[in-house]
Fold each of these.
Amino acid sequence: MTRPVEHYCPRCLREPMHHRRNGRLICSECGTVSTEAVVERREVQRRENNTPPVPTTASVLPSTSDNSTSHGYGDPVAEPDKRSQVEGQAQRFAVTSEGDRWDALPEYAAFVLALAGLSIEPGAQEHTWIGGEEVWARVWIDKRGIYVVRLATKVRGRCSLCLTEIYAMQRAGSWLRLQRPEQARWQRAALVEAGIVEPPPVHLRALPADAPKVVASLWPYIAELVAIRRIREPEEDALPLSAPFLVRWCRKTLTETEITLAKRWLERHTYIWRSGLIPSASRARRDTVLWTVAEAGLPHDREPS
């Protein structure tokens, strides 16, 4: 069996990074976990800059400590301490892409997987319900360090699900096929609910005491949506409020008909008003209406005339 090519750790330059079964590389000295592409790129940069590896006693002498383990090739190495393991997780978190970096965070993965009744430990098949569908699933960590849920059998054409899809399906109570903009909103909502991201404060105009019950039920969800969208677009003051999406956003506590009636009441009483259109790319679909939501202390020049 050919031994894999070894590259020195890009973080500590002490120990070679070795292949593991999940396709990632790990440093036995500092616990850094990274992908092979990142390690190779850092190795090329190190050679171009003529930066030599840092020799250590552990790299030239066998360990005599009782607390040792094998990295898979028979050479005993020191067990990384807790701090090294945390630093290694931070390194894995840093090397993933901007769009997927949250899915590599163990705290976020543990929160979302708990909603589906799944353990964060990869490998074992577990029986659960996701989006109203009965499935057998297991947690898997890909070569980028991202947590993915793999399904034992295809469900509505899907063999695997990302964390955001699982969160959206569990909250909406149905199987969803998310487009990118909607997926981004659900991911931010999950991060807020998990306590990882702090949303900006949003204070909508208070409803009157005699407001219909469906309006009072919908209004907090609209406030939540405004806050979630402003995590990424702080200056945004217009957003789509389509009834089909709000049904999912409200966790199906309201029907599409109730949401449509509530929106008409809010528009009639100038709690929301039309402020633009997003043209549809297809003639078969209608343009998307943009709405401005009345906030507490909103300047009068921003209200509809």
Amino acid sequence: MESSSFPKSESELPSSEKVAAHVGRLERTHAILAIAPLGWALFHLVEQWSLFRGRLAWLAQMRATSGNFATLLEIALAVLPILAWAGLHARALVLRRPIPGSVTRDEGGLALGLSALQPVASSLALLFLGWHVVWLWVPKLLGAAPVETYDAMQRTLGLPWALGLHAFGLAAVLWHLAAALPDGLTAMGLLRTDEGRRGARTVAVVLALALFVLFAQMVGWVGTGTGTFWPIEVVQPT
């Protein structure tokens, strides 16, 4: 069964429906850009994994991924798409349009549960990502050395309110992604059936839970030196 609610291409529509097609393009673009944080999350997980090998390993990794080319690539593939998503999200809220992941197509309890909080989760996810960029990424652009970034993370994440904020923010980002991923894949033309959307949503929820555990463990390690869910012992190279 076809389940996509996104309209066909504008060339297939009569001229009286061109305005509706334009709205459809914006909604399709919104759905695709709403899953941009997934790529940034996966990149950050790979980049920051060196934290589990200690401070020196992390500093070496940051020096390798903090060059001009890497920074421009991160801006083009992550920061700009997320900014565009933020703009379309604000537009949807002002015009009271549905946002990706907030409208279900009779896909069962999991979809209903995720969509119920999706407008709030998406807004909180954007606020958390904005705070994260201002806290760590802007100083990096302004020339902060990796050692300064590490010290700032360790100093801030050692505070209980910062650990709580990260737990809440990570939950919002990953809830948003779990709910929005089927709509994003549908807008890209990769999902066309209800069964495909249900499968994608299940995979998205499992992926979100796994990412939450890994990122929370990483944040706990930086802030407390022991991890969040299980203890970590770093063995320094001899």
